[in-house]
Design a protein that fits this description.
single chain, 119 residues, mainly beta, 5-stranded mixed β-barrel, 1 helix
Length: 119
């Protein structure tokens, strides 16, 4: 079985969001986002959004699986992050070895309010 590797270019930018300068990486692709999914199977994505990564959170496969099975759960590390910016979403990138990439926009909340999945 061949493994396919997808390369996504990232462009570092400094943007102004809510009066603050924020360092982001703009992905070279646009993604659809699902609103308030309960778990990864519940991501009914729609739209076409630019993705601006504000930070990356790397997890173990076990941590990722626990996170992805209960996306409604409050998480301190998401609190106050994310938001809508120039036809795109400010996101926390979440990944683990052997798992898909998730792009989380909590839109100021403390849970994954908007989620895009890649892989």
């Amino acid at each position: 079985m061949k493994t396919m590797t997808i390369t996504i270019d990232r462009k570092p930018l400094t943007i102004t969001f809510d009066g603050q300068e924020v360092q982001v990486e703009e992905l070279s692709i646009r993604l659809p986002f699902g609103r308030k999914p309960a778990d990864m199977k519940d991501i009914a994505a729609s739209g076409d959004y630019a993705v601006y990564v504000t930070e990356t959170r790397t997890m173990t496969p076990e941590e990722f699986d626990g996170f992805a099975m209960n996306l409604y759960k409050s998480r301190d590390w998401l609190k106050g992050k994310g938001g809508y910016f120039m036809q795109g979403r400010l996101c926390v990138e979440v990944h683990a070895p052997g798992r898909p990439y998730l792009f989380i926009d909590p839109s100021g909340g403390d849970y994954p309010r908007y989620v895009a999945k890649m892989g």
